[in-house]
Every structure is written in structure tokens, then in C-alpha cells.
Amino acid sequence: MKGIRVRAGSVNALVTSLGVGAVGGALFHLMGLPLAWMLGPLVANLLMSAKGVNVGVPEPLRNVFLAVMGLVLGSQVTPELAQRIMDWPVSSVLLLLGVAASTAVAAAWYRRCGFDPVSAWFGAAPGAMTAMIMLGDKCGGDPQRIAIAQSLRIILVILFLPPLFWIFEGGEGQLGPADTVLAHGWMLLTIPLLLPLGRWLRVPSAALLTPLLMAALLSGFNLASLTLPNWGMNLMLWVLGSAIGSRFQGMTRRLLGRYLWQSGVATLLALIVLAIFAELIHQALGIGRDVALLALAPGGIGEMAILAVALNIDPVFVAFHHLLRMITLMIAAPFAARWLLRR
What we know:
disordered N terminus
């Protein structure tokens, strides 16, 4: 009976989450806001979570839709992509310098907010959230503070960047032309095989990256490229937006407001620093400012991939740089942890 109640509670939370997400998406769509079917469900679920309403998207369902996103993203790879790879070492170096500078600035702000040094540094690191929480906990930091700082940064970046691109760059919030039909939909049937394969191979962010790599190989050799119709894209954004917004279940409004203020300032400082490095990439390589900023933005790889695909902002370039940042952080974090422990 207990197991049945748990499953029933999860189903109720999912139905509520998707229901309020649909309302939020419809309202944002009617107001003509960008990425309505992602930002609307995200905001609606965030508000419901703060009010104590039981909302949530189960991890297995979220992973399925992340895998769909991975297939769509990998399908953006073309044979012509090799001609641009020579530009990437320069942008990669600037990315890593920007990550170091933005982490230092955000950590300094968190220290002023009363964070201990370990929590400040691991809360400010822009990516590899699970690894940062675990390592921060091992080093004596506050895992709850680190988790909240990491999660709120991702949400704030998602909420801030699309309207900014919409205003200054004319982003339409949709992938490809209107009324796009489903192409090579059989690739979706590989998801039940790719998810356990990614876990078995211990691929980081396996739900996203394993389908991405398979789709990139197929698309790169002109064998198959998945294309979703607009309704399919919006369905994916609706579920993923609801999943992101429902992360703060059980947090009081007062506590959420305080953490939003602290994380909001830290995120703004990080974005300002990274915008400077994005401008350097733009000047050095001629890459669009919107592409460079989204490639450096301090969000999670899954969330930034969603934005890149939905806003049609050079998804492969963006995903590569976020993957590089995540891998670098996972390699560098243990050394940073030892340094903090010695201090």
C-alpha cells in the first residue's frame, strides 16, 4: 500500500505540474512572450512550489524528453561543421578564462552574503551541478546552499536570456520554419536503448549526451537528421520547463525570496563578466554576440542546449562549449577541493 501511495502521489504531482505548466504556457503564448512553452511552465511551477503545492516531474520522464532534445541537437551537425572547428580553440581558451573569472566574482559576492568559502566557491562554479554539490559536501560546505545557488542560477539564466535575445536580436523562440513536419522520427525509438547505454558507459549528463552523440554521427554522415514539428517542440519545452520550475518543492516564499536575491546578484555579476569574454570571442572570430554569449552563459548544458535549439542560435557551437566547460569543471573541481581542504 505504501508503494501504491508513493506512485499515486508522484502521478498527482506530475498531473498538477503539467496542468499549471499548460496554463502558464498558454498565458505566455497569448502575451506573445519568447519561448512561451518553456518559460510559462517554468514560472508557473516555480510559483506553485513556493506556495507549497505538490508539483514535480519524475526523473525518468524528464530524461526521456532530455534524450529527445539530445537527438534534435545532434541532428544539427552537418559535414560543413568541420570547416568551423579551427575557430574553436580560441573560443575555448576564452571560455575557460571567463569561467575562472566569473566564478571568482560570484564567489566573492556569496562570501559577502555569509557563505563559508567552500559553499561560496562550489555554489558559484557555473556547471556540473551534481559534482559541485557532492564535492562541496565532502569539503565541509553546505550542500543545501550549494544546490540552491546552482539551481537558481540556471533558472535565472533561462528567464533572463530569451527576452534579452528577443529584444536585441529578434529571436522568434521556435526552431526552423513554421509547420515543420516530423522527419526521421524513427530515431525516437532508439531512446529506450540509448538511456541505459549512457548510464552503463557512465557518460556525463547521459540522458542528453548519449542521444546527441548518436544523432551527430548519423547527421554528420548525412544518414538521418531528426526534425520535430512545432507542436512536438512545444511539447518537449512544456515538460522540461515544468521539470525545471518544480525543483523547489517545499521551500518557503520568504526563504526563496532571500535566495533569489543572493543568486540574482551572483548570476548578474557572472553574466557581466562572461559578456566581456563573449565580446572578445565576437571580435576575435566574428561569431555573433548572441551565439558567443549563449555559449558562455552560466547555465546547465541541458538547459542551454534547449535555449540554443529553441532560439535557433548555433546549437552545435553552444553545446560544444558547455560540454567543454562541464568536463573541465569536473576535472578541476577535485584539485580545487584539495586546495580548499588544505586551507
